[in-house]
Amino acid sequence: MYRYDEFDHDFVQARVAEFSDQVTRRLAGEITEDQFRPLRLMNGVYLQLHAYMLRIAVPYGTLNSKQLRMLGHIARKYDKGYGHFTTRQNIQFNWPALSDIPAILADLASVEMHAIQTSGNCIRNVTADHFAGAAADEVADPRPYAEILRQWSSVHPEFSFLPRKFKIAVTGAERDRAAIQTHDIGLHLKKNAAGELGFAVYVGGGQGRTPMIAKKIRDFLPEADLLSYCTAILRVYNLYGRRDNKYKARIKILVHETGVEEITRQVEAEWQELKEADLKLPEADIRAIDAYFAPPALADRPEGDEVVRR
Fold first, then answer.
1. DSSP codes of every residue in the chain
2. What topology does CATH give the domain 6-109?
3. pLDDT per position as a tens digit, 194-213
4. CATH T-level fold of 127-291
């Protein structure tokens, strides 16, 4: 599991306090539903036909026992006793009262969970293989890179109001259990001939009304260039993605209508301006994030793990 650092704790607590104030003002009638809408969406709150719905990010598809118990507590206390796990490593509660949502978010923060950017036209929660960190066919654990992307994308000032929602998935395995080609950006962690880590980069996948498979635009991106290359992709999309029709606003439509060759050219041109700047990832930062994915403290078993290995 990923363990929050001091910044994570402070950041999530600050967002809980900020949204609590926004909810108080909405319930008092100081802001309208239209004014409240972008604020609640950035905190995972939808308004459905009969009630509000809260979508919570499950970090990289893995829950520890404390987090799972907290979800059960939230379901019993604030909802109808159950939740809905989604296809993108979230859980949704469909019947919470708006007045209770700040308390729910505070409970989530106490077990290192949140609902930040699980909705809205922003970069959504970054997902990974649900066996990440334990899969035998992994080149490397993709979760530290997914966490780096989460930290980079959270409340990103340039990408908080995109033409449409934007989803990123990372896998480090030979078998793609993260379904990266159904995402706006799919990253396949791999090694080149020299044994260096990097990514194959796919762009323009998505489901919904017009499902499309993402196209590979770069066969090998060095790991240090992860953030600069993703920034280049997002800038091209933010500039040229349609905002006049929400059904044609996803990057998959932009790739389809512009052509993968032209999109690749635009991304590469933008990246040339970014690749040697401040977004280059230092090796020390990558290893520091990696260290926060502590393995569980498992007791030694006298019979060993041969059965599991088979």
1. -B---HHHHHHHHHHHHHHHHHHHHHHTTSS-HHHHHHHHHTTTEEE-SSSEEEEEE-GGG---HHHHHHHHHHHHHHSSS--EE-TTSEEEES---GGGHHHHHHHHHTTT---TTSSSSSB---EE-TTTTT-TTBSS-SHHHHHHHHHHHTT-TTSSS-SS-B-EEEE-BSS-TT-GGGSSEEEEEEE-TTS-EEEEEEE--B-TTS-B--EEEEEEEEGGGHHHHHHHHHHHHHHHS--S-GGG-SHHHHHHHH-HHHHHHHHHHHHHTTTTSTTPPPHHHHHHHHHTBPPP-PPP-TT-SHHHH-
2. Sulfite Reductase Hemoprotein; domain 2 (3.90.480)
3. 999 999 999 999 998 999 99
4. Sulfite Reductase Hemoprotein; domain 1 (3.30.413)
For the chain, what percent of residues have pLDDT higher than 70? 97
pTM assigned to the model: 0.93
Which residue ranges make up each domain of the chain?
6-109, 127-291
Q: What is the mean pLDDT of residues 31-57?
A: 95
